[in-house]
Fold this protein.
Amino acid sequence: MNPQMVMYEEEFNQIQAVVERLVKEANAKVVFIVDKNGQLIAAAGDTENLDTTSLASLTAGNIAATGGMARLLRENEFATQYHEGEKANIHIQLVGNRVILVVIFDARSSLGLVRLRVRRASDELNAIFEALLTKVQSPDRNDVLTEITDADIDNLFND
Amino acid sequence: MSFINYLSREINCKLVYYGPGLCGKTTNLQFIYNKTAPEAKGKMISLATEQERTLFFDFLPISLGEIRGFRTRFHLYTVPGQVFYDASRKLILKGVDGVIFVADSQIERMEANIESMENLRTNLAEQGYSLDKIPFVIQYNKRDLPSAAPIEELRQALNANNVPEYEAVAAKGDGVFDTLKAITKLVLTELKKGSGQQ
């Protein structure tokens, strides 16, 4: 089982900085990061008219299905996927087998440029998530959860 | 595997509706979708065949309110019930925080229920979870049908561990929210317990 995913302000800011820079450097429309269970972690670019929650869940499903195919072929993972549309293209990269980096781009960019920029961003993200994981496993985490009382949970349903 | 975001102050959890083909998993989600206020839900996605059988999964994100200033958000998934989609079912169980087993009460579906329950246990074990430990509730659906088996019989076949169980007619919505409330409570209680132990 994977450890629980937790996000703190410090690491979020680092991740957000990488994602925002990737939008610029890759001439992308949207960049977002999803964990393998489909939770959206960060997003940048023209996300206003985009259903990022749905995209996150479908991306994770897609990576899970591709991972299933990989295992049947005795491959470890297919770490990269690329889907080409008429106007929009989508580049999906598994980072450190933990999170998924998604870049949506159009004719203003190219697959070559996106791949190049994604490679560098992946290394940076990997290091950040590595550090985050260490922090999550330290003993004094999740203080908010321990404070929750049974009454708090019951109150959620008092409608 | 829940996701706690201290920055946006959100607790995100994943729930999976499991059960044999045509037992009403998608119907549960559709009812929840229809009865949830627009601001508390996202789009419902169904990856289904042309005959409206679930092919990969249904997905519905809902928000349930705040606990200690943290918004609780639940991602609801269904699995495809048909036996031959087992590879897909395994994938959807990844990172699950709580499971709802939807049983088809019709007596002729008893064996399908039992088979699906065993399949759930096996597939959870493959992901490193135990059905005896994970937050888990059972819903006996289609109680309105004439061929519905007595509850006692269903309980004996499916609920050896005496987990919370609910009667339902998902098509009309009976029991749907009771089941959802029960599993979200168990998941949040487990989160609280889990964090205390570490």
Summary: The first strand of chain A starts at residue 5 and ends at 7.
